[in-house]
Fold:
Amino acid sequence: MTFSRQTSAGYLVNDLARRFAAALQTRIKPMGLSTGVFPVMVQLWERTELTQAELVRRIGVEQATMANTLSRMHRDGLIERRQSPDDGRVQVIHLTEKGKALRDPAIEAALSVNRSALSGLTPEERDQFLGLLAKVVETFGQHDDGPPPTDP
Amino acid sequence: MTFSRQTSAGYLVNDLARRFAAALQTRIKPMGLSTGVFPVMVQLWERTELTQAELVRRIGVEQATMANTLSRMHRDGLIERRQSPDDGRVQVIHLTEKGKALRDPAIEAALSVNRSALSGLTPEERDQFLGLLAKVVETFGQHDDGPPPTDP
DNA sequence: ATATATTGCATAGCGTGCTATTCTTATGTA
DNA sequence: TACATAAGAATAGCACGCTATGCAATATAT
Structure:
């Protein structure tokens, strides 16, 4: 039984994810952003007020992870939290002006990372790649996780 | 300027990496292994004695990350460290019997995750996918990181 | 031979993800 | 009305990655 990293999808995907994250970080750190914060910002750049639970649903990260990320974002002056008058439990998150102002350069940075990463592929290969990534994510999504199917 | 997760390679790769890690973890945690430890074990299953610096080179993680991972592995009884008689700086890492015994089930677990993840793809698509992943990793490797090329 | 790198490793500190637990506030039902 | 449940959020504690430092041992250069 052999295990080679060159033929292991998991190995390659993990490797690639670290490289993507590193590349994004070098580009957005100078603006005061970080990789974990980025998906939250993307959501808030589209609709400026969202609940923490809404963000969790949209981004697909655990609630505790989101709470920590939002804490850092608040510490760094990117967001503010307001008590909802309707429901005493919910905190409405909204971007500060500082956060809003980062939209264009930050999105450009992310697009640039993607362009650069895929620059070795032909346009057809890029479409294939994105399609296959989405398809594999989809496959995962079906059982979400869980043990391997028992073989007969 | 728009940013959609469905068309962002970085977003998809990051998402996928988390899913792969979660799936692997549920399978190997019962054996006392974790995702960060796995690549180290793979190396040590092939040659039972390696230097920390060797492991860093082969696995491509930072030296500090490796030091921490090895600490946990030692704490959990997977490895032992021996002073090298030739060079007073180096610690030779070698597997314990417990670590050696995990080889077959752990590798089977990882192969199973890959099989399961790619089960929605045709054999041709799987080859394409692995090939494209390797190609993109390659592209990253060339400049390793760095700012986007200045456009004229 | 002594001074200056370089190499191998450890530690501190942080970001980002996870699970498990707890607290508060709504909401349902007896 | 009282009590159990559910939902939103925070916190504790861990794994795993990173950068930045520090330290000891070896190599190299003058």
Q: What stands out?
A: The helical segments of chain A are 9-28, 38-46, 52-59, 63-75, 97-101, 103-117, 123-143. Strands of chain A lie at 49-51, 79-83, 91-95.
